[in-house]
Design a protein that fits this description.
The complex is a heterodimer of chains A (263) and B (474). Chain A has 263 residues and is of the alpha/beta class. Chain A has 13 helices and ten strands. Chain A has helices spanning 3-10, 23-37, 53-61, 74-84, 96-102, 104-112, 158-164, 178-190, 204-208, 216-226, 230-233, 238-241, 253-259; strands at 45-49, 66-68, 89-95, 118-123, 126-127, 133-134, 169-174, 195-200, 227-229, 245-250. In chain A, the strands form two sheets. In chain A, strands 2-1-3-4-8-7-10-9 form an eight-stranded mixed β-sheet, with helices on both faces. Chain B is 31% helix and 26% strand. In chain B, helix 11 (383-396) links the parallel strand 18 and strand 19. In chain B, helix 3 runs parallel beside helix 8 (247-264) and helix 11 crosses helix 14 (462-469). Chain B starts with a strand and ends in a 5-residue tail after the last helix. In chain B, 49% of the residues are buried. The chains are: A alpha/beta (263), B alpha/beta (474). Chains A and B meet through helix 1, helix 2, strand 2, helix 4 and helix 6 of A and helix 1, helix 2, strand 4, strand 7 and helix 5 of B. Strand 2 of chain A pairs parallel with strand 16 (324-326) of chain B. Bound molecules: thiamine diphosphate and iron/sulfur cluster (3 copies). The site of one iron/sulfur cluster has 15 residues of chain B, from helix 1. One iron/sulfur cluster (SF4) binds at residues 18-19, 22, 24, 53, 124, 128-129, 203-206 of chain A.
Chain lengths: 263, 474
C-alpha cells in the first residue's frame, strides 16, 4: 500500500489539524510505512502520549489502543502499561517539552532501568501547542515567543542525555530524510529494552515563522545543512563539525562522544 | 514500471513540500487556494517521475502515488482492524466473585501498613508503584517482598507523579493497582488523580496522613488531608474516600476500596495516618472474600455518559477495541471534543451522577446511642477511637451523647446528618487538624456544629474529649 492508502486505512480521519507543512505528518507517514514494511498492523502497537501537538499524533488519528495522558508523563504511564502486561508493544510519542522538560525525570529513569518501551520524541525545538515558547531543546540564538531576542540557554543534546542515562539504543533522524526516518523507526520497533528516537521535526507555524523559515521546505533545507550522518562525520575537520548535529544510530555514550570528538 | 501520480485535492494543504522537495520537479502550483490561503498543487510533469517516493512521505496524504513494482509482495496487510484481540476478549467478564483468601483463616497480629498490603493482594491487586515517604514506607517495602511471591509487579518509581501514572497505566493494562503515599506525595498525585476521574480509571491510593503543612512532622499523626483528598484536584468531581479506625478495618476497608473502585470505575482514596500505620493489632482473616472485578462487555462504549448513570464497560489494552483514553473531554467512545459545551456538560454530569446516584449504597457508618442523643460526636478514622471511649464514659455520667463515625467519608453521608439534626441539639467534630471536616458537617445542617481541633501531631487524648463533653471546654 502507498502512504495515501495506508492513511486511509489506519487514520480515524484523513485530514488532520496539524498546520500545513508540519513535520508530524512526515512522522505519521514514516511510522505507517515502517509498520507496513515490518508486515505488522498499526494496532499491534499500544500508544501512549502526553499533551502537545505531538500528543495528538496517535490519540486523535490512530486506529489502535492509545492513552492520551498528562503533559510530561507518558513515559511513566507507559511503564505501568508495559510492566502490567509485558506482551503489549508499548510506544510513547511525546514532544520535546513533554519528554525532556516536564517529563525529563521519567525519561532518564526509564532509560536507566531499561524499561522495554520505545520512546519517540518529536523535537520541533519549542512548545508548539501553547504558542511557541522556548523549550529544553531550543537552539542558542533562536527566536521563540519567550526569547524574542534569541535564546541564551544551551539546549539539551537528547541523544547524549539518554545515552548518558544508560539507554542501549538511541537514534536521531531529521524529517528531511524520510527514508532514513522509516529505517530508524523500524529499528526502534524491533530493538529490545528501552529505545529512544529523536525526530527532528519542522514546525513552520511557531518556529519557522520566527526564524526566517516560513515554508516547511526551507526548514528541511536548513536541516540538510545542519545535520550530518554519522557515516560522514569522520571526513569533516573540527571547525566544520562545530555547527553540525550528528544523526544516525547510537549504541553507547562512548561511541557518540567519539563522533563528537569529545571522547 | 508504470507510475500514476494524483493529488486528492480535498486533502492538499498547500504546504509546498512536493513542489520544493521532488527532485524531478513533477509538481507545480494549481489554481485553487486552501482555507489557510495556500495554493493547492497539481501534477505537472508526471513522466519525469523516477519513483523515489519522497513526495508521498512529505505529503499529509493528498498525493496518491501508484508505482507498480514487478514483484508484488505476497503479504497483503490484513484489513481486518479492531476486534483483533485474543479470543478471550470476545467474552464478557467481571462482576462479583467469591474468592478464597490466600491466607489461612484465623487471627494475625499485624501492623496497619502490613494489613493494607495483605488485603490488596487478597482481593487480586497485582500492581504496586510507590515512592518512599514516612509513614507509608512499610507498604512499599512489604509490597516489594510480597508482590514477588504472588507474581505481581512492584515498581519503586522515580517520584509520586510517576507512581500514580504507572498505576493508571497498569489499570488499563488490566491489573488492579495501588499506590501509597503521605501528604506531600499526595499533593504531587493530584493532576493524575484528576485524569483518573476523567478517564474513569479504577485504582486505590492510600494516603497515610502525617502532621503538616509541608514536611511538618513526618512521624506524627494528623488528619491534614481530609479536604484535599476530596477537593484538591482541578475540576474535582466526586471521590470515594474511606478512613478506618483500626488495623482490622484497614484490612476490610482496603478490600472495600478495591471493590468500590472497580465497580464505579473511579479512584478510591484510603486514608490512614501515622498512628494507624504503625499500630499493631490482631486481625481476623475469614476464609472467603467477596471481590468485584470491573465489568467488560465486548463492543460496549468504554466511557460515559451511560443511559442510567451506570458505570460503563471497561476493556483493557489488547482487547482489540481501539481504546482511546483521554483526559480531554470526550464522548462515549473516547473521541476528543474540546469545544462542545453539550458533551462537556454530559460528561461532567455522568462522572458526578454515577457515584451520587448510588449514595445510599455508599453510606457506611458506625453509630452509637443516636436514639436519645442530644449531642453527637462526629469523628473520622483514628480519632473515632478516642471519641468512642469519651462518649461511653460521658453516658456513664448521665450525658445524652451519641457517636457517629462515617467509614466512608466521601460521598459525605449528608442525609444521615440531616436526619439526625432534627432531634440533636449540637454536633461536635474532634479532628487531628485545624478543623476540616467541621466545615463539611456544618455545610449540611443548620444546627450548632462545634470544631474541636488538635493539629499538634498527637493522638487526641480521650480524656480531653470527655472533659469537653462534661462541659469543661476544649
Ligand atoms: C502540567 C501542565 N503544564 C502545562 C501544560 C500546557 N501545555 C500544553 S502543551 C504544552 C507544550 C507542548 O510542547 P511540546 O511538549 O514540545 O510539544 P509540541 O506541542 O511542540 O508538540 C504545554 C506547556 C499542560 N497541559 N499541563
Ligand atoms: S504548531 Fe508546529 S508542531 Fe504544532 S501542528 Fe503547527 S506546525 Fe506542527
Ligand atoms: S505535499 Fe501534499 S499537501 Fe503539500 S502541497 Fe503537495 S500535495 Fe499539497
Ligand atoms: S516519486 Fe519522487 S520523483 Fe516521483 S513525483 Fe514523487 S518525489 Fe518526484
Amino acid at each position: 500500500m502507498n502512504i495515501h492508502e495506508l492513511r486511509k486505512l489506519y487514520l480515524k480521519q484523513e485530514k488532520t489539524t496539524f498546520c500545513p507543512g508540519c513535520g508530524y505528518e512526515i512522522f505519521i507517514n514514516c511510522l505507517l510505512k515502517a509498520v507496513e514494511e515490518m508486515k505488522k498492523k498499526l494496532d499491534d502497537f499500544n500508544f501512549v502520549e502526553g499533551i502537545g501537538c505531538s500528543g495528538w499524533v496517535a490519540s486523535n488519528y490512530f486506529k489502535a489502543d492509545n492513552f492520551h495522558t498528562t503533559h510530561g508523563r507518558p513515559v511513566a504511564f507507559a511503564t505501568g502499561v508495559k510492566l502490567a502486561n509485558p506482551k503489549l508493544n508499548v510506544i510513547v510519542i511525546g514532544g520535546d517539552g513533554d519528554t525532556a522538560s516536564i517529563g525529563g525525570n521519567h525519561l532518564i529513569h526509564a532509560a536507566r532501568k531499561n524499561i522495554p518501551i520505545a520512546v519517540f520524541c518529536l523535537n520541533n525545538f519549542l512548545y508548539g501547542m501553547t504558542g511557541g515558547q522556548a523549550g529544553p531543546t531550543t537552539p542558542i540564538n533562536s527566536k521563540t515567543s519567550t526569547t524574542t531576542e534569541g535564546n541564551a540557554d544551551i539546549p539539551f543534546d537528547l541523544v547524549k542525555l539518554v545515552l548518558g542515562a544508560g539507554a542501549k539504543y538511541v537514534n536521531r533522524y531529521p524529517t528531511a530524510y524520510p527514508h532514513l526516518l522509516v529505517k530508524g523507526i523500524k529499528n526502534m520497533l524491533s530493538a529490545d529494552g528501552f529505545r529512544f528516537m529523536e525526530i527532528i521535526s519542522q514546525c513552520p507555524r511557531q518556529y519557522g515563522q520566527r526564524n526566517q523559515m516560513r515554508w516547511a521546505s526551507k526548514m528541511l533545507l536548513w536541516q540538510k545543512e545542519h545535520f550530518i550522518s554519522k557515516e560522514k562525520v569522520r571526513s569533516l575537520n573540527d571547525e566544520t563539525l562545530k555547527d553540525k548535529i550528528i544523526f544516525g544510530e547510537f549504541q553507547s555514550l562512548k561511541e557518540y562522544l567519539e563522533l563528537l570528538r569529545e571522547g | 514500471m508504470e507510475r500514476k501520480i494524483s493529488i486528492e485535492q480535498t486533502l492538499c494543504r498547500g504546504c509546498n513540500l512536493c513542489v520544493e522537495m521532488c527532485p524531478k520537479k513533477v509538481f507545480e502550483d494549481g489554481e485553487e487556494i486552501s482555507p489557510e490561503g495556500f495554493k493547492l498543487k497539481k501534477v505537472a510533469n508526471p513522466t519525469k517521475c523516477t519513483g523515489c517516493k519522497l513526495c508521498e512521505l512529505f505529503c499529509p496524504g493528498a498525493i496518491n502515488l501508484k508505482i507498480e513494482e514487478k514483484e508484488t509482495p505476497s503479504y497483503s496487510p490484513r484489513l481486518r482492524l479492531g476486534r483483533g484481540g485474543p479470543p478471550e476478549a470476545r467474552l464478557a467478564r467481571g462482576g462479583w466473585r467469591e474468592t478464597k483468601n490466600p491466607l489461612t483463616p484465623g487471627k494475625y497480629f499485624w501492623q496497619g501498613n502490613k494489613a493494607v498490603v495483605e488485603a490488596a493482594l487478597a482481593c487480586g491487586c497485582r500492581f504496586f508503584a510507590g515512592y518512599p515517604i514516612t509513614p507509608a514506607n512499610e507498604i512499599l517495602e512489604e509490597m516489594a517482598k510480597r508482590m514477588k511471591v504472588v507474581d505481581g509487579v512492584m515498581v519503586q518509581a522515580e517520584d509520586e507523579i510517576a507512581a500514580i501514572s504507572m498505576i493508571l497505566g497498569a489499570s488499563w493494562a488490566g491489573l488492579k493497582a495501588i499506590t501509597a503515599t503521605s501528604g506531600p506525595g499526595f499533593a504531587l498525585m493530584q493532576e493524575n488523580l484528576s485524569l483518573a476521574d476523567m478517564t474513569e480509571t479504577p485504582c486505590v491510593v492510600v494516603d497515610v496522613q502525617r502532621a503538616g503543612p509541608s514536611t511538618g512532622q513526618p512521624t506524627r499523626p494528623g488528619a491534614m488531608d481530609m479536604r484535599e483528598v476530596r477537593y484538591g484536584s482541578h475540576g474535582a468531581i466526586q471521590r470515594i474516600v474511606l478512613y478506618p479506625e483500626s488495623v482490622q478495618e484497614l484490612y476490610d476497608l482496603t478490600i472495600k476500596a478495591f471493590n468500590l473502585s472497580e465497580r464505579f470505575r473511579t479512584p478510591v482514596i484510603l486514608l490512614s495516618d501515622a498512628y494507624l500505620a504503625h499500630l499493631s493489632e490482631s486481625v481476623e482473616i475469614k476464609e472467603k472474600i467477596d471481590a468485584f472485578d470491573r465489568i467488560y462487555i465486548p463492543g460496549e462504549p468504554p466511557f460515559g455518559p451511560t443511559p442510567d448513570f451506570s458505570t460503563p464497560s471497561m476493556p483493557r489494552f489488547g482487547d482489540g477495541e481501539f481504546l482511546s483514553i483521554t483526559g480531554s473531554t470526550h464522548d462515549k467512545l473516547g473521541a476528543r471534543s474540546t469545544a462542545d459545551s453539550g458533551i462537556q456538560e454530559e460528561l461532567i454530569s455522568h462522572l458526578q451522577n454515577k457515584i451520587i446516584k448510588q449514595k445510599e449504597e455508599l453510606v457506611d457508618c458506625e453509630e452509637l446511642f443516636l436514639n436519645d442523643a442530644k449531642i453527637v460526636v462526629v469523628a473520622f478514622g483514628t480519632v473515632g477511637r478516642s471519641a468512642k471511649w469519651a462518649v461511653r464514659e460521658a453516658r456513664k455520667r448521665g450525658k445524652k451523647v451519641g457517636f457517629l463515625r462515617p467509614r466512608i467519608v466521601y460521598p459525605f453521608p449528608a442525609d444521615k446528618i440531616k436526619e439526625l439534626s432534627g432531634k440533636v441539639r449540637k454536633f461536635v467534630v474532634p479532628e487531628m487538624n485545624q478543623g476540616q471536616m467541621f466545615y463539611v458537617v456544618r455545610e449540611k445542617i443548620s444546627r450548632e456544629v462545634v470544631s474541636l481541633p488538635q493539629p499538634n501531631g498527637q493522638i487526641i487524648d480521650p480524656r480531653r474529649i470527655l472533659k469537653y463533653l462534661l462541659g469543661e471546654g476544649w
